[in-house]
Amino acid sequence: MDNPRSFDEMAYLDLNPDVEAAIRRGQFETGYAHWLKHGKAEGRLTSLDDIKTPSGECPDDWDEARYLRMNPDVAASLRAGVFTSGYAHWAAHGEDEGRPGGLLSFRLADPAQLFRDHPFGINYFGFHSMKNGLASAAHGYLDALKLVTPNVGVVDVPVWGREILEKAEFTPDRGTYAINILHQNPNMVPYFLHHYSQRTLQDRYNIGIWVWELHAGYPDWLQASRLFHEVWVPSAYVADALKPVCAAPLIRIPYVVGGLPEEPALSRATLGWPEDAFVFLYVFDVASTLERKNPFALIRAFRWAFRGRKDVVLALKYHHASDDVTGVRALENFCAGNPGIRTISTTMTEEQVYSLFQLSDCFVSPHRSEGFGLNIAQAMYYGKPVIATGYSGNMDFTSAENSFLIDYNLIPLDTDYEWYQKGYAWADPSVEHLAALMRQVLENGEESKRRAERGRSLVRESFSAAAVARQMERLNRLQAP
Q1: Which of 5, 108, 132, 309 has the fewest CB atoms within 10 Å, counting from its CB?
Q2: In 20-118, at which residue ranges do the beta strands (DSSP E only) sit?
Q3: What is d(CA 462, CA 308) in angstroms, rounded to the nearest whole number?
């Protein structure tokens, strides 16, 4: 189908990014074909002449088509009549949100100046009140930061993507100190900017804390990285993944693993665990994606290794089940008919969860990828033998000398899993090898104890709040003339 000369094909695709995506998927041959079938009736924009800004003019260096092409949701809002132009959106929201394709308005502050203008200290923005791994990591970082400086202001960020996004009113706490730490993964930065705006980052020394689980980051994170003077990552794995998409220096600051309760708040009797049984434990968050946490592989390995044995138990503790009702139902069905498998989905306090670590005999993590592997490190803190996939962030502290590493192959994701996009890679741990390692840990107690003790020593020495604080001391040097 030939386009008439009066139809500007490229302008139509620039102004309607979803149409370009549809053409790439093979749904339409051309933008003109789409316009004939849908676009005309939908009132789609076909030319920049169709766009009117509130003032009637855009700045000379404004590229309307580029802004809409790089922000498909804004293009959709124009079609819905929410905004009259991309520039109108940028003036109302896009500038504060740091949207790509608009006028460049953000400049990183000069550290020499900002420490003269603001008191030395840290505004720590994070999900401090959540019940997940990000919050646990934030609590540990806070313990270390308070050993560096007493001037730490805690700003509890709400959970993006849920009810907060529907609220018409939101009053951000922007902090008073010279240093901002934004414990917000790169995919969360746009939410943060939408509510806090770039003004929160102006005239501050900005540090991002990013963690990521796949082998590579996403290209659009490069834009977000330009808001930061530096980005902290918990492991070498994350640093390697983010290096191509991060303009800021990447600095490895591991998670704190310390200060955990030394005595259990529960007993095996209260949990229904036999006193004389050998208990394998896995603790995971359903909200962190069941496919990535991979408990099904562990259930298969346990059944292969210990079918019919009554002296071996597999305990699976998970939370946030409502985030994947279908997946959790499949998990429960998978466990049904296996009396040796116990699932715990009830809400527990942190002290009770740590009791599970203390009362179990071995921790197992058949994950496909981890940014750090905090639950693995916590089990090692308690001197437990650890079986874990020999891949990703945990390889900063697990080795053949202090743990039992599961063989794996790298595979591409066959579909999108929440934040994790199809085509990227993660591990596929061997179920057969996992079963063999579980039998090895059970049957070779002395070797298991030796490795567990090495792991315990490493974690307690290298990941304590004091050890991590020594790496954070660099903050004090920032204000040096």
Answers
A1: 5
A2: none
A3: 41
pLDDT tens digits along 358-401 = 999 999 999 999 999 999 999 999 999 999 999 999 999 999 99
pLDDT at 97 over 70: yes
Amino acid at 178: A
CA distances from 205 to 126, 156, 313, 321, 336 (A): 16, 19, 50, 38, 53
Q: DSSP E strands: which ranges in 294-442?
A: 312-319, 341-344, 362-365, 386-389, 404-406, 408-412, 425-429
Residues 6+ apart with CB under 8 A from 168: none
CA distance 254 to 374: 10
Task: For residue 252, give the H/E element and its range.
Answer: strand 250-252
Classify 281 as helix, strand or coil: strand
Joined together, the tokens standing for residue 160 give 């993006």
Other Cβ atoms less than 10 A from the Cβ of 290: the count is 21
Written as one string, the DSSP assignment of 129-148 is: TSSSHHHHHHHHHHHHHHHH
Compute the residue count for the chain. Answer: 481
Q: What is the pLDDT of residue 447?
A: 97
User: For residues 119-146, b (16+ Cβ closer than 10 Å) or e, as one string?
Assistant: eebbbbbbbbebbebbbbbbebbbbbbe
The label of the residue with tokens 């562990």 reads 298
What are the Cα distances from residue 290, in Å, to 134, 194, 455?
A: 17, 29, 27
CA dist., res. 125 & res. 147, Å (int): 18
Interatomic CA distance for residues 8 and 11, integer angstroms? 5
DSSP SS3 for 435: helix
Per-residue pLDDT tens digits for 394-435: 999 999 999 999 999 999 999 999 889 999 999 999 999 999
Which runs of consecutive H residues, i.e. helices, occur in 388-430?
none
Neighbours of 98 (CB within 10 A): 21
Please state whether beta strands 386-389 and 362-365 pair in parallel, antiparallel, or not at all (unpaired).
parallel
Phi, psi angle pair for 112, to nearest 5°: -60, -35
